[in-house]
Amino acid sequence: PLDIGFYGITSKPLEDGTYVPPKSQDGDLSWWCDLCDIGWADEYGLILHERRSYGHRVKQAERQGLPPPPKPERG
C-alpha cells in the first residue's frame, strides 16, 4: 500500500463545488498545500512536497508573477 504521509492525497470536490480534505488512515490530513490541493497527515510530507515538487514551484512562481523555475536535471 502507498505511504499516504509521503505521497499525499488529493481532495475530491463535492457536488456543490466545495472541497473537503479526505481522511487518511492516520485520521485528518492536517498539512495541506492549497496551491496543489493535496494533504498529508504529517508535516514531513508537506515539507518534502514543497522541496521536491516541480509543479508546486511552478504554481508558486505564477502566483508571485515570476517566470517558472528551470526544470530539475534528471539523473
Automatic annotation (TrEMBL):
Domain of life: Eukaryota
Protein name: C2H2-type domain-containing protein
Species, as recorded: Neurospora tetrasperma (strain FGSC 2508 / ATCC MYA-4615 / P0657)
